[in-house]
Amino acid sequence: MDAAAVAAFDGQALDHVLIFDTTLRDGEQCPGATLNTEEKLAIARQLARLGVDIIEAGFAYASPGDFEAVQKVAEQVGTPDGPVICSLARALKPDIEAAAAALKPAAKPRIHTFISTSDIHLKYQLRKTRAEVLQIAEEMVAYAKSFVDDVEFSMMDATRSDPEFLYQVIEAAIRAGATTINIPDTVGYVMPEEFGQLIKGIRENVPNIKQAILSVHGHDDLGVSVANFLEAIKQGARQVEVTVNGIGERAGNTALEELVMALHVRRSYFNPYFGLPVDSEKPLTHIKTQEIYRTSRLVSNLTGMLVQPNKAIVGSNAFAHESGIHQDGMLKNRQTYEIMDAQTIGLQSSTLVLGKHSGRNAFRTRLKELGFELSEQDLNKAFLRFKELADKKKEISDLDLEAIVNDETRPVPELYRLEHVQVVCGNREAPTATVRLVTPEGEERVDAAVGTGPVDAVYKAINRIVNIPNKLIEFSVQSVTAGIDAIGEVTIRLRHEDRIFSGHAANTDIIVASAQAYMNALNKLYSALHAARSTADQREAAAQKI
């Protein structure tokens, strides 16, 4: 099907692609990327600033924490002029009811229900026949429709399903009220041409397909998910389900920034598939591309999932040139080796922003220019950190400011508080650390330990006080800017039983940053254990009443 045929295929076809962000749901399923409610809210607010059309805030039925997160996002981000807020739900009544209840505060709620359709899933996972799945799909879409007008229906493992059966299920789901039909490549199996042909087949063989928007969902197990989506768009898909930085289960989901920038940079190539002139300047998504880099950094910091340097669009090397030939071409004309301007994704060209004599108003103004809208309390905290940094550094860049704001306003429960850390080490000294913490009960405790290095000594001293069994599985230090006085960002991940918790902190002293990042992760762990105990106590009390 050529571009003209796709554009003319459906008189109701959108002339742009809807961006459905599932960072808070499928992205969070990435091992170690667990987020608490406040962190999810911070990301949801930034996704709204980014301009995504739909935010999948979570899986409301999965746990009380997930329900609360969906409800809070619906309440605080799901405003009339904000994005659609969505909750996932299996094709089961309790799931759908939980989703509907959590989404009540949203101005534009969507229930996203799903069931598997591939024969391998039907046989080994669902243990149901095709006829049973067909009936469940129609009934549960209709049930979801009784709560909200906007219902999305997905067929898990659609790309390994029999196309003829897919057509039947899709037709039934639309007949029952589904307004969006999503085709997931659940295991990242298909190749681009195959995915395009599947979308084409659906559009040509489902009689009522014009009554719904066709969507695609993908995983990057074979590294072709962005290519798959672009091919699906060419064949008429008008919603894409993506995550920031491509985080997600296994090899991750389709990356929002890669898909969006492909449509932005190669607009003239894709325009005809939307019925637009080749030279049209009309954006093909609603994404504010200048917010991409900031969104990427926020998600990376809060999840503890570092972005690889050579990652397309948002990697630290994405706009770096070392080869002499490339550098020579760049000096003569940037377009010789760059297909997009770094400022398009929000990277700033300025280096020196503020200094130690800068006042609070100038600080606030620059933060607004960078896209940060802080409360008075957060602004005060960030300004104090800025002044401390300004005494240590002559030049403070936008990246320094971003690190300060993210570090000071990160929504992490401060149950244990780090008051003091001191380290003695050297080539002839045994690394020794002394730490002073304030416990959740307000008690001040001091301890010391010897380690293989200064960070190891600090962590051992902290563990002697906190005394929560855990294993450090990842430790990373990155420089925010160049120079000996650069801020160092430390990201760690630790494991407790079968759960992973991340921590992040920034400081010009990497030992202090390491201690703060560790406390960050331990507080998340402590909070999770406390919440689990509270839930267990509530269940026991309820059982005793019965």
Compact summary:
With 546 residues, this protein is of the alpha/beta class. It is built from 18 helices and 14 strands.
Structure description:
It is a single chain. The protein is built from 18 helices and 14 strands. With 546 residues, it is of the alpha/beta class. It has an eight-stranded parallel beta barrel with strand order 1-2-3-4-5-6-7-8, surrounded by seven helices. The chain has a three-stranded antiparallel beta sheet with strand order 9-10-11. A three-stranded antiparallel beta sheet has the order 12-13-14. Strand 12 and strand 13 form a beta hairpin. The longest helix has 36 residues. The chain is globular and about 75 Å long. It starts with a helix and ends with a helix.
Structural class: alpha/beta
Record the strand order, biggest sheet: 1-2-3-4-5-6-7-8
Distance between the termini: 63 Å
Radius of gyration: 25 Å
- In round numbers, the mean pLDDT is 87
Which word captures the global form?
Answer: globular
The number of distinct helices, counting runs of at least 4 residues, comes to 18
Number of strands: 14
What does the main sheet amount to?
8 strands, parallel, barrel
Secondary structure: helix percent: 40-55%
Name the poorly predicted regions.
321-331
Question: Per DSSP, what share of the residues sits in E-state strands of 2 or more residues?
Answer: 15-25%
